[in-house]
Amino acid sequence: MALSNTGGARTFTRMDESTREQWMVIAAETVGNQPRVASSVLALLRSLENITDGFAVDQLTHSVQTAARAEAAGADEEIIVAALLHDVGKAISVANHPRIAAEILRPYVRPEVTAMIEFHQDFQGRHYYEHLGMDPNLRARHTEQPWYELAERFADDWDQTSFDPDGPIPSVEHFEPMVLRVFSAPHQI
To answer: pTM score, two decimals?
Structure first.
């Protein structure tokens, strides 16, 4: 069996030669290192400060405004954190940003919250797709979904209204405790 040393612990170099004991060490270390997930997500979020792409505010400002509107409306922590992170995928790919954000959130939030983020562009399109020659009614394909009203509220009340340089602009630090709590342990893997 091929073994390597990392941090004093002996571990395998091939999964097909691993042991239960090794996996128990890995599982314990993974749980112990869970706070790095929230730190990485917050760093990715902060990188949105460098993305404006023609909007009146940078994408970080847009994100914190969206989360602030969700919080002011009485949304729960999972929804507020999802609102904060809904565009975090733009740091990697604007074209696929909703799915990237949804996949980051998926293990940590309820399925309806993940769906709200994954399909937010279909709902957001009502407000601008016609200007781009696209179908502004893409949300109609989701009308039978149990999360439809949540996604509609997110897009219409919080997201599309959050490009205001004079609007509420709380700090990322205001939301950090929520992000730390939501990302403290996955609901699912």
So the answer is: 0.90
